[in-house]
Amino acid sequence: MILLQKVGTCGKFVSGGAKRGHERRLPWRARTERQQVVRRFASMFTRTRRASRRCSAQETTQRFLAKLVVVSRAMAKKARKVFSCGHCGHTEPKWLGRCPGCDTWGSLIAGFEAEQRAPSRINRRSPGEGSRPVPLGEVGTDRAPRRSTGIEELDRVLGGGIVPGSMTLIGGDPGIGKSTLLLAASASLCSHGKVLYASGEESLAQTRMRADRLGLSSKVGDQLFLLAETDGERVLAEAEAMQPTALVIDSIQTLHLPELGSAPGSVAQVRELTAVLLGFAKRTGTPTFLVGHVTKDGAIAGPKVLEHMVDTVLYFEGDRYHAYRILRAHKNRFGSVSEIGVFEMREEGLVEVADPSAVFLAERPQSAAGSIVTSSLSGSRPVLVEIQVLANSCQGGAARRTSVGVDHVRVALLAAVLEKHLGLCLSDQDLFVNVAGGLSLDEPAVDLAVALAMASSVRNKPCDPSLIVTGEVGLAGEVRSVNQVELRLIEAAKMGFSTAIVPEGNQSRLGKTPPMLIRGVRTLEEAVEATLEM
Known about the structure:
This protein is an alpha/beta fold. The chain is built from 15 helices and 23 strands. The protein is elongated, with a radius of gyration of 32 Å.
């Protein structure tokens, strides 16, 4: 609020803190706004003085101050335009090219400040309704049973099913299958009670058409309720009245709270909506699913705090133009983050892939140089994948190291180890590493397979197609042990592999093993000799 001072008795005003004739030179828009405010207060003071000529000077001043307080409050409640950052939530009164809070370019979005209104009736509690401190010894240890979604691959990634009162965020590229998966899961959850599916992107007819295409309309009966609404308070009111078994929000960026002045999908809206939905889920024990859009840089739209607030964060990986989808947990408070779920997109929707190893190895070439199979452990399930390496002579300049599905830093490290300890000349070779099937591998147990595939491609010698390799490679050229080798070998034996190369440390501790030839190696040099001379 602009502080005003009376000058003399003529009713003229200047901005507070400025002396007569020494006012600061402000921009044209700021000067215009200040002049309007000064004229408004001067007119109000003149009307007050005329209406109270018979009153004393003290009473006139008191009346004017009372009106001043009312007008100031009205002006303070008026929402003004601000620019908020879509990454960190920092606000600025004017647009800037780079956010001062997180140094991100082009992230400031126009909006309005939230008006100071009373909190929503949905969140309002009377005294005594909140939680109270409880001694640790009095806290019960009974765990609520998990609910199955009816989709085994989804239950696997969630850690065995849905935990009552949990909040799960599912992200992925547009058209990858987020809504399809949640609609199928909602139909399965109808066996436990009513399910509320709130969609802010599609109409009721569009959602019904998807359900008919998936063959779900005849299975849900009257237990699946659809709500096409973008008002967050309306969705929460319907959820409070219905008390559903599960709540699905598709998507969180389309909802908004009317009491906030910002646009849907802004930082303030997403943060406040998630907080309100999280409170509803914890208070009523309703498992809640949120769909989050993914931006062009691969992150879920909205502030990063959204991922910290929810209990589970799931990402759909894969290209929407290909058939296979991989559901991976990036955060899970109730289970492992190493589990993955594999789906295939068909005309009837997402179909579970019970044996992903057979899928990833179905089109593997036989007796091709630079191709070798390894076993990657995703949670409790080993998955066999093919590592492909292409070594090509560099056509001048620095040699390139390109990788898809494997960390490029790890690829450069393994190339340096091969060149140092085996004498392979890779400084004039472009290396292209690929994991067939689109799977991303981040465990060190695949190091030995990547290194052997490099050596096979450089020497142009194919590996035995019935060979599987696993092990970690150190900078000294040693092959280190990996965990749960028995599970990896059992899965390889089921897929028809007859020979395995493992670290010597693992071979000495093997218990019951499948009927296959197992060879232990201590160094990378031994592994290369055993692989390329077989």
